[in-house]
Hints:
The chain is of the alpha+beta class. It folds into 4 domains: 121 residues; 299 residues, Rossmann fold (3-Layer(aba) Sandwich); 82 residues, no CATH class; 66 residues, no CATH class. Helix content is 29%, strand content 26%. It contains 15 helices and 26 strands. Strands 4, 5, 20, 21, 22, 24 and 25 form a 7-stranded mixed sheet that branches. Helix 5 packs parallel to helix 15. The longest helix is centred in the first third of the chain and has 47 residues. It starts with a helix and ends with a strand.
Amino acid sequence: MLGRLFGCRKSGGDRGATFMGRLARDTRGNVIAIVGASILPMLALIGSGIDVSRAYMAQARLQLACDAASLAGRRAMSNGVVDTAVTDEATKFFNFNFPQGLFKTAAFTPAVTGAANSTVVVTASTTVPTTIMKFFGFSQLPISATCNARQDFVNTDILLVLDTTGSMGYDVNGVNVNSGSTSKIVAMRTAVLALYDELKPVQDQLEAAGLRMRFGIVPFASGLNVGKLLYAKNASFIESDKHNYYSRAANYNILVYAPNTPTTTATNETYGSDITSANCTLWGSNAVPYGLGTPINSSSTPPADNTQTSYAKVSWTKKSGNGSSAVGTCIRSVTVKTTSYAARYKASSGSAWISQRAEYQVGNLVNGAGIDVATNTGGTVATAGIYNAVQIPTVAQNVTLHSSYSYSTLTKSTTQWNGCIEERDTVPTITSTSGYGIPSGAYDLEINLLPSSAATRWRPYWPDVEAKGDGAKASATCPGEARRLQVWTRDALSAYLNSLSAAGSTYHDFGMIWGARFLSPGGVFASDNPDTYNNMPVSRHVIFMTDGIMDTDPDVYSLYGQERLDKRTSGGYVSETDQNSRHNQRFKIACNATKGIGASIWVVAFASSLTAPLSECASNSNQASTSADSAALIAKFVEIGKNIGALRLSQ
Length: 651
């Protein structure tokens, strides 16, 4: 029996197998035992997966919130300081992306601090409660995030295109304050300096790394001052031979007479008989000697108007007698001065200026020698004719006329080139429906075209000779000289901005065309604008600020002359509305060309509506804005400073 119980076999088969043997060999019901034994490990595995997955999602969301907070905080930073504004902005973005209690996390407060190189550091840590793992002694799982953000600039070039038209001398309510403390041009100066202050820490960091941040400035109105910069770059860029101006002239056609240089003859006469000394004195002055009647050799008729005869005692030589009765020989001189009169011509009195298109030599103007220009129509000329304002000083003379005539004397001044330009050749076919292509012959819009002919060279702007159709001097404005890209000090930038004044009409296209030229890696200033500097790329930006809509004037002397007379952009002036639309299209073409060189454009309309062309010019809708007052303009320039370049997470 014991043998059967413990599995002892009988010979001849297994029928005698024991109970314990059969039980050992029987596998029925093993699954229940195995499941029972493994249920706890399985619960731990599944629970940890669920809880860890929740913790992982919470961790990812926490990191996202941290990144957003550090970027927002860095954008709010001014002058590299982590202040309340930075902390509040970073915390706001953190809480927006990770609200308290999300994923049932424990309450916490993110920490916002600063680090070197104007870096914003955000750290946060909390815990996520578990659901199943708490049965195994793990009631919560820790999560944390740390992130840094800094303004990571490459080489940065910023071109400021600034409106300096007449309305900039007004306040935001349209009151002319003559560039006083409340004028828009003063607000513009302050805003530009605020931009500089915002970017100065970055400029310092770049310089320390062997890189650079530069600013260029193009003030614009109805004129534009870049000529001397072009001439210094290459004298052949500016026309130095001849150019046509619709200019002032005068018609010298009124006949007058002026005395020629008199001819003089002098002879000595001897009194015909002996004469006393007293009578010699009288006769010597052609007076009647006492008791002797009419003077000898004197005419009884007066001399002609152009002849003057004068007498003078020469000598008296005593011959006989003594005392007062002595007589002698008397000699006097007779001088006859004959004046003839020459025909001269003067201009008509009153408003004598007329206007005509005339060709002028401009070499002396461009090279700085200066040219004399008549400031009135005075003087007379020898030959009747029409003379322009430069010819008059060389042919007209201030002479003494016959007493029956009167005239004004000639006045003149030496004119110097102020550096403003007339644009090179263009075509009048660009209208609001022309699109963005540049027509053949529109050399003014080709930002990279180097001058190689009279048609492609710029011409000196010469307001001293420019005249309206009635001969009156044309209205002209030459803004402050533009500045090529350079590294500025704050004092130098402030002094330059203070030199700018408000005058002229509003031509947005002038500013943008030359903003593009100053930034382009091709064209006349190509050497200023390499794509890399010290083996690092260059980021290009244009900040275009204006206080008004396009506002052209057909009678203003601009880069294209006077449109009513010169018809360079219209082919024939129609209306101001038509002219504005033509220049708006040119502005769009210039904006498109600026984007084509990889520049990012920011447009700020100061106390003005944001027109469709201005909105379209900006690189995106977020980079086009209006500023209703001085404070808003300053804030906008600071905001642009925060956005220029690439914010990146450094950790």
